[in-house]
Amino acid sequence: MTHTADSDLRPTRRSQRAAAREEARRHSLLHYLAVSISAAILALMLAVAAAVIGLPALAGGSAMTVLTQSMEPRLPPGTLVVIRPTDPDEIRVGDVITYQIRSGEAAVVSHRVVSKTYENGELTFITKGDNNPDNDPEPVQAVQIRGTLWYSLPLLGWVNSVLNGPNRVIVLAVVAGGLFLYAAGVFFSCARGRRRRAGAEPAEEDAATTS
């Protein structure tokens, strides 16, 4: 009778072990998927940070956001434009320059150089927005120029506006807190999975010994 009862229990124990192994495989797959997603998000955030902050700082330039349609289709609103300092004598026709609308004031615009001339011994530039029908009304003096376009990235200008706006500290705190919570969740999930696997192994050994 005892032998028959043990025989009846063996399939159940094998099923339990198989279920435990299947659960462990599923947990491992989810874990690796979570790690891959987190790594991709982290890489994306680092790339954005490098494009918006790191590279401009290394080149002594600055990142700005296109707000108007004057440079469409190449630079639509929301585009991040990164400019770097350039000697006015090295600026050529066809370059996109960022310059002060009025000398000494903070407001700037980025338009393309359509001609480069000397007036009374002073270097000046005639500019035009790619999407504008006419040239800009006033020539740009060398002293007004902040730099030339280095590279541009679509849509990231909105990110730059948020990071450089009044809510910058809040945004950075939320992002940092979210990453911390996510990392903590991954850590505790891994620890819980290890405890489950550690508890399942003695149970399997006891089942094998009993059978």
List keywords for this structure.
211 residues, Peptidase_S26, LexA/Signal_pep-like_sf, seven-stranded antiparallel sheet, 3 helices, transmembrane, alpha+beta, Umud Fragment, subunit A
Can you describe this structure?
With 211 residues, the protein is α+β, with helices and mostly antiparallel strands. The protein folds into two domains: 2-57 and 173-210; 61-163, Umud Fragment, subunit A, CATH 2.10.109.10. 52% of the residues lie in helices and 21% in strands. It has a seven-stranded antiparallel beta sheet, with helices on one face. Helix 1 packs antiparallel against helix 3. The longest helix is centred in the N-terminal third of the chain and has 58 residues, at 2-59. It is rod-shaped. The chain crosses the membrane at residues 29-55, 169-188.
Q: Brief description of this entry?
A:
The chain is an alpha+beta fold. The protein has helices at residues 2-59, 156-163, 168-210, and strands at 62-65, 80-84, 96-100, 108-119, 122-128, 140-141, 145-153. Helix content is 52%, strand content 21%.
Q: How much of the polypeptide forms β-strand, as a percent range? A: 15-25%
CATH architecture descriptor text of the largest domain? Ribbon
The total domain count is 2
The largest sheet is: 7 strands, antiparallel
Counted beta strands: 7
* Radius of gyration over all CA atoms, rounded: 31 Å
Helical region count? 3
Query: According to CATH, what is the class of the largest domain?
Result: Mainly Beta
Proportion in helices: 40-55%
Apparent shape? rod-shaped
